[in-house]
Predict the structure.
Amino acid sequence: MTVKLRVPAGATPVVHRVEGSNAAAVSLFATAVGTALAGLPESDPSFDGAALVTTRSLRTPTTPLTPISAGAQARAGVWLLVTLVPGLATLIGTSVLFVMHGESGMLLLAVPMGIVAVLFNAASGVTAQRATKMWLLPWRGITVMAVRTSPYGKRGIYEYTDPSGKTHSYYRDAYASEIEICYHPDDPAESVGVYPVYMRVLATLGALVLWAVTAGLIFVAIMAATE
């Protein structure tokens, strides 16, 4: 479908392409433009109709993904191993030992215990990661004020801006309009609130308790499989 605009004598018309897969919509648009142009009085032959044309895309631009730094990938890999490998290894290892010892019936006990060990392992890993961030980021990270953007309530969404101008969100149970947070210098999206020392100690103790329970479950499962 072609829409012809008036151009000065001897000039080359500018061709504008209407992108889209809806042929009916394109045809309707061209017809509407052609009808509107046909009803206009004759203008100065030197006038260029292309000067009145503005173009814009109706497609939503794709937001480029923020590249993940090598350090962030390494930290994520370490925490993934710490969070899943011990529990999964216990589940698989004890199941194999029971089968090798001819005690397949014990799988009815080993599998549920192994699944519980995996869950506790995951919980202890996540809690330990949180406690580690609460201690390390205020020490070696960048501290800024995050401004609340959500309606007033217990659960708040806070936003902060890194040196490049990009805005990040942080979620926390707080009523304040602003809170102090710390983010990793190499990965601004990795952040944690600045908590009092006693709350950091409690988080650390909680992680240690979960790790103790996880270790106990793994020990019991291994002893049961090796007897």
User: Anything to note?
Assistant: Strands lie at 142-148, 155-161, 167-173, 178-183, 191-193.
